[in-house]
Amino acid sequence: MYSNRIPVLLIAVLVLLAGCAGGADVAPAADADDTDTPTDGGGSADTDASSDGDDFELSDPERLLRDAGSFTVSWSYTGVDADGVETAVTREFAADLDAERSYSRTTSTTDGQSDAGGVEQYVADGVTYVRVGGDDGATYTSYEGSTEVLATAIALSQARAYGADDDLTFAGTETFDGASVERYELSAANEALILAGSAAAQGEPRTLEVTSFEYVVLVDEDGLSRHESWSFSGRMDDGSEVSGSWEYSLTGVGSTTVEEPAWLDEARA
């Protein structure tokens, strides 16, 4: 049985890794011929969705999203540290692989105050356009080239990243974004899930007693993780309260379109 007393930095790093694992750039997918995506008749053991509703199993997300042609991903994190400082980060992007367009926006706040106004990226025709800052002082740039959008989308989904899939339990079916999904839950602080961030922890971390922990994954009939939520709260060894949560959603699969942002002309100037 895993003890609920764990280094608090491990929790913090775990959440940060979930947000930054895919990098900051979002762009249309590379040509399918340049990937290692399995073809019909071959693939890894997790290629096909589970036929048993009680078993947690995911299909190959890269293949499924390429086949769908478009999708929207949103990710958010909110946390309160031992000093009472609240940090919030949001990230969203939309990709139309067929039109070779994508759009992303990242924002962050500290105690409700915006940090630098956010970053937006728009990719079309092999050019990346970037807007940094708020309406009062935005700056723009553009450059040839782009990065792989699917890598970002897959990285933001953490359902397979921390070894939690063996402990997730089936909790029924529901509907998400118009799709029938199976719900899987984890209600105990799983050792592998938390210790995944330990390599990046530095110094001598203080300890945290976890008072609540919940992890939920919604999987559609194709084996795609469509929604994930992760949350914890706890108490530091000095009595201060801390908490954290992140949420991931995959929507508009096959129906997402990407429009030009209102600031595109300024970025082109």
UniProtKB/TrEMBL annotation:
Organism per entry: Haloferax volcanii
Ranges annotated as biased composition (Acidic residues): 49-59
InterPro entries: DUF7537 (IPR055959)
Pfam families reported for this sequence: DUF7537
Superkingdom field: Archaea
Spans annotated as Disordered: 31-59
Protein name (database record): Lipoprotein
